[in-house]
Amino acid sequence: MTFTALVTERREDGGIANTVTHLEESALPEGNVLVGVEWAGFNYKDGLVLAGQGGLVRHYPHIGGVDFAGRVIESSDHRYHPGQAVVLTGWRVGEWHWGGFATRARVNADWLVPLPKKLSTRDAMVLGTAGLTAMLAVNRLKAEGVSPAGGPILVTGAGGGVGSISTLLLARLGYKVDAMSGRPELAGPLKALGATDVVGRDVLAPSGKKLLPTRWAGAIDSVGGAPLGELLKQINPGGCVASVGLAAGDSWDASVVPFILRGVTLAGIDSVMQPFAARVSAWDRLTSLFSPAVYHSMVREVSLAELPEIGNAILKGAIRGRVVCKPGA
Description:
With 329 residues, the protein is α/β, with parallel strands linked by helices. The chain folds into two domains: 2-115 and 295-325, Medium-chain alcohol dehydrogenases, catalytic domain (Quinone Oxidoreductase, Chain A, domain 1, Alpha-Beta Complex); 129-268, NAD(P)-binding Rossmann-like Domain (Rossmann fold). 28% of the residues lie in helices and 27% in strands. The protein has helices at 44-51, 121-143, 161-172, 187-193, 225-232, 257-262, 276-289, 292-295, 307-315; strands spanning 2-10, 16-24, 33-42, 62-63, 67-75, 85-89, 104-107, 112-114, 153-155, 177-180, 197-199, 216-221, 235-243, 265-268, 299-302, 322-325. Strands 3, 5, 6, 7, 8, 15 and 16 form a seven-stranded mixed β-sheet that branches. A six-stranded parallel β-sheet has the order 11-10-9-12-13-14, sandwiched between helices. Strands 2-1-4 form a three-stranded antiparallel β-sheet, covered by helices on one side. Helix 6 links the parallel strand 13 (235-243) and strand 14. The longest helix has 23 residues, at 121-143. The chain is globular, with a radius of gyration of 20 Å. It starts with a strand and ends with a strand. The model has no long low-confidence stretch (mean pLDDT 96).
């Protein structure tokens, strides 16, 4: 049997080539569950993989795709049976292990989650890693005592996958959301998702101060870098920032002042190595909070052949919402 895949290879000159091709199923890596991939998501990491950046891929040729949803074809693990709908995010799939940019994927059963019955495989990838990360971040804010009554929540990078889904989830839970984006044209779509206000990047401009007047009860931050340092200075006493990304870099000029004078918490969100129970809980909660119809305008469907171009765009911050791919189309 053969399957179709977007294969990433490093050429002799060090460059990267991405080609849609057909491979034998025997070429798939080891694993105890074979999945027919119906939909794959596209994430920032996928852009790095297709560009050969970030040192994420250990061996070439490679098949990227850090998340996918589909149906089991074969399984030697008792938890899964042929025809069962499943979803996979994280576990270095698409980085160290061949991923979802193909019509077939062979993986470890421990990495899979049974797809909630209320979600289609396409809906699962509209959410994907971005949706799981957003849900984990929202759950963390709530666990840290950040309630809708405490004041507005800032969502940085609100035009991207994590940011836009976070905006929708927070709004549905009754929070007032300030959605931050450097793209003014996204103000309408973000307000349609439930944002109370849409603010520019200037709200986190360098200040040179240790503290600033408080503005938000908490935040979900996918930007990182210097803006994160400015964000921490404006969080209410006892507030929390859930850190989920590093689009603006992985470091900043830090100060302990927000932590020791205002009791602010900086909480890291790791969606890659989350245990099974936490994943199941997050997916179950997403089925009741996420509205595919409301999010429809933020979704773009593409083919395998279009993914390298999408990768270039996502690395430039030019993708809004979520991109999903149907490998068999």
